[in-house]
Structures are given as structure tokens and as C-alpha cells.
Write a structure and sequence with these properties.
418 residues, FAD/NAD(P)-binding domain, alpha/beta, 3 domains, five-stranded parallel beta sheet, single chain, 32% strand
């Protein structure tokens, strides 16, 4: 391996990583390198060929490919180096990053690292779905790449497993590619997307949504012929014919590099644990975007990256010590909160708010945040549930005792309305 130095290395060339690089350059950081393992930077929006991107960060509605290309072009114009087809494979014993690219293997010794590796949908194998192993079983990302980059058609019937935002994106892609979507399946009692999205989908496509149902087996050879659906309330099973099965949502952060670096993960998000400045527990390493949790929209990830860029620039200019942080934990049925720690400086989190999710659907729950039996904040949110985040205000972080115990987030009245 040869070695070279760079002040800041951003691992991941999606919206979070590119927005981080742009912010670093805007704040005067001289040398910023973005490492992207794919042939082209831009992340998931590159192959999400529909509208809905850019509202929160660039304040205009854009298609996924246009949004992605805009960020790549802006990052390069800012002076950041965007290195494609470059994978970070590990950490050296002295904290350098080990890289592999077509030209060979390299090492980088940065002053700061930002992990922006995103997240992925869990495939069929990870969901333990039984049956045969035919062709035609894939995730949303695979479908969208085949359609966007190879122009593949999906003739015949398709079944979508999941009912989050991305599930409706998969529906649009499949329909555009010629498929007849026969239905959506979710184990939960309702969909997890915006009500207006579900209503528009029903009017436009008229497909059924089967709630409280799960795919227990896939049958067919050499291609899918049908699946077995089980009603979770009655236990009854039935078979649905289809030639394509698309597993959507059920996100897990791409945290493998963080694990190799000995960086602490949060048990709720399964992503890297960070404080409100998006610092990990490892000095000099920050994280941003969907590597922190299950998928948030691309523009939310980009704003997280922008926040991380500002934090990195401040840290580089101050040459200060790496602060300790107080962890935040959620009590069931609450699932996770992000960021999930508060640093000693009590900085504001990205967008000035915390994201909170629940395992159960709750309307108007009252939330209480405590530290060492001392109430830091108490208030209500409109609704909570899986697959969509609610926002919590961040003013209470100023009251956190940096030397105190962990912060507890719970329902003020367990057993509230579902």
C-alpha cells in the first residue's frame, strides 16, 4: 500500500456525504475527499426516477436523478474531490483508512472522518422467508437499478412486501416497467407512509393493501409462480400468484465499517451512536445520514450531512479535546431516537430537532424525557409509529447534566391511545 494524507475523508457519496463535503469546503476546509464505492456518486436518488426530492434542502421539487446529479456537480464545483469506484475496506492499526480501487490498494490518514454510508433494505434471506429459491425475488434498490440503468421490463404480476414510503416508490417503478402489481403486504395494521400518498396510490393504481399479513413462503422454479400469505390474526393461509416479489423497507444501516472501527452502535437504530454534533465515540470520527438509523428521506439525510460538515469544521479549527457524551435510551413501545447522545457542549441536533420512532401506532402520545429522575422535557406529539419519524424539540439539551446518568425517553402514560 502507498499512503497519502487528507484533512477530511467522507465515506459515502450519497446526499449526506456530498452535502457534508460541500459544507466543509464552504467553511474553508482545504482538502475534502469523498469516497464512493459505486461507479457513480449520488446515492439512491440516482435510480429513483420520480419526483419528491429536494424540498427541505434545495427548496424545490426534483426527480431523483436530477437531485443526485445536482449534488455531485455542486460538490465538485466546491473543490471537493469525489473519488468513485473506491471502497473503504478497513482501518489500519494506527487509524488510517484502507482503500481498494481498480488501480490498487491505498491508505489515507485523515484528520477527521465522516461516515455517510447510508442504509439498505434487508433481503429475503435476512427475513427468513421459506420456500424455493427462484428468480424474481429482489429489493426495491435492485428493481430501480435494473429499470433505470438497464431499461429492464417487468412483465407479469408483482407483489410488494412492505408499506413504507419506499414501497410506494417501488410500486411506481414496477408499474412504469410494465408490471401488474397485485398487492402490497404488511405485517402492521396500516401503511407507514403519508395518508395522501396512500390515497393517491389507491386512486391511481387501485391495488389492495393487505394488512396484518405476512409472506411465509415463496414457490416456483425457475421463476416465482406464487407466494403463501398468512393472516396474522386468524392464522389462515392463502396463495397469491405472481412472477416478481419485491421486499421493501425493513432498513438496516450500513454499519460494517463502523463496527470494524470499534465504533459504538445504538441498539435501537442499529446505526452508529452519535451526539447532537454527530460525533461518534471514536475521536475524529463523525457520522451522518441514514447510517445513523433506518431510512429518512434524501433531503433529511443531506441536511444531516450539512450539520456534520459544520461540526467537523468547528472541531478542526478549535483543536479541542473530544468531548464525552451522555447516551439517550428509549423505553418500549418507543423504538429509537436520533441523535442518541448529548455532548458536554449541548449543541443543537440537525434541523434543531430529534427524530423519534415507535414500534406501535400511537395518536397524541405524551412523551417524557428524564435524567436521574429529573424531568428535562414533557410534551405531546401528533402521532408515532413504525416507518415514520416524529420530531421532538431540542431546547432541553441545555439542562442535561454532562456528569449525570443516561437520559430516558418514555411515554408519560404507558398504554396510551393506539
Amino acid at each position: 500500500m502507498s499512503a497519502s494524507d487528507a484533512p477530511v475523508v467522507v465515506v459515502g457519496g450519497g446526499p449526506a456525504g456530498l452535502a457534508c463535503a460541500i459544507e466543509l469546503r464552504r467553511r474553508g476546509v482545504a482538502d475534502v475527499v469523498v469516497l464512493e464505492r459505486e461507479q457513480q456518486a449520488g446515492g439512491i436518488p440516482r435510480h429513483s426516477n420520480h419526483q419528491g426530492f429536494g424540498v427541505r434542502d434545495v427548496h424545490r421539487l426534483m426527480s431523483g436523478p436530477r437531485y443526485a446529479s445536482r449534488y455531485v456537480a455542486h460538490a465538485r464545483r466546491s473543490g471537493a474531490r469525489v473519488e468513485q469506484e473506491t471502497m473503504v475496506t478497513g482501518w489500519s492499526g494506527v487509524g488510517h483508512l484502507e482503500l481498494t480501487r481498480p488501480a490498487g490498494r491505498y491508505m489515507l490518514a485523515p484528520a477527521a472522518i465522516v461516515l455517510a454510508t447510508g442504509c439498505r433494505e434487508r433481503p429475503r434471506a435476512a427475513r427468513l422467508v421459506a420456500g424455493s429459491r427462484p428468480a424474481g425475488v429482489m429489493t426495491t434498490g435492485t428493481v430501480q437499478q435494473l429499470v433505470a440503468f438497464r431499461g429492464q421490463r417487468f412483465d407479469g404480476r408483482a407483489l410488494i412486501v412492505g408499506a413504507e414510503h419506499v414501497s410506494f416508490s417501488a410500486l411506481m417503478t414496477l408499474t412504469h416497467a410494465g408490471a401488474n402489481v397485485v398487492g402490497m403486504v404488511t405485517e402492521l395494521p396500516c401503511h407507514q407512509s403519508l395518508a395522501v400518498v396512500r390515497a393517491a396510490t389507491r386512486l391511481r393504481y387501485g391495488i389492495p393493501l393487505w394488512t396484518r399479513s405476512t409472506v411465509t413462503a415463496i414457490h416456483g422454479y425457475p421463476r416465482v409462480e406464487e407466494v403463501t400469505l398468512e393472516d396474522l390474526d386468524s392464522g389462515r393461509s392463502r396463495r397469491v400468484g405472481c412472477e416478481t416479489v419485491v421486499f421493501t423497507a425493513d432498513w438496516i444501516p450500513d454499519h460494517e465499517l463502523a463496527v470494524l472501527g470499534g465504533i459504538e452502535l445504538d441498539p435501537g437504530t442499529r446505526g452508529t451512536r452519535v451526539d447532537t454534533a454527530l460525533r461518534t465515540k471514536r475521536p475524529g470520527v463523525f457520522a451522518a445520514g441514514n447510517v445513523l438509523h433506518g431510512a429518512e428521506p434524501a433531503d433529511v439525510a443531506a441536511l444531516s450531512g450539512r450539520h456534520a460538515g459544520a461540526s467537523v469544521a468547528r472541531w478542526l479549527s478549535a483543536h479541542g479535546v473530544w468531548p464525552s457524551a451522555v447516551p439517550i435510551a428509549c423505553r418500549p413501545p418507543l423504538h429509537w431516537i436520533s441523535p442518541n447522545a448529548v455532548g458536554s457542549a449541548a449543541e443543537a441536533p440537525p434541523r434543531g430537532r430529534f427524530a423519534l420512532r415507535s414500534r406501535a401506532f400511537l395518536r397524541g402520545p405524551e412523551i417524557e424525557i428524564n435524567q436521574d429522575k429529573r424531568c428535562l422535557w414533557r410534551g405531546t406529539v401528533r402521532r408515532l409509529g413504525p416507518g415514520r419519524s416524529a420530531s421532538l424539540p431540542a431546547g432541553w439539551v441545555a439542562s442535561v447534566d454532562a456528569d449525570g446518568g443516561s437520559i430516558d425517553v418514555a411515554l408519560a402514560h404507558p398504554g396510551g391511545r393506539a
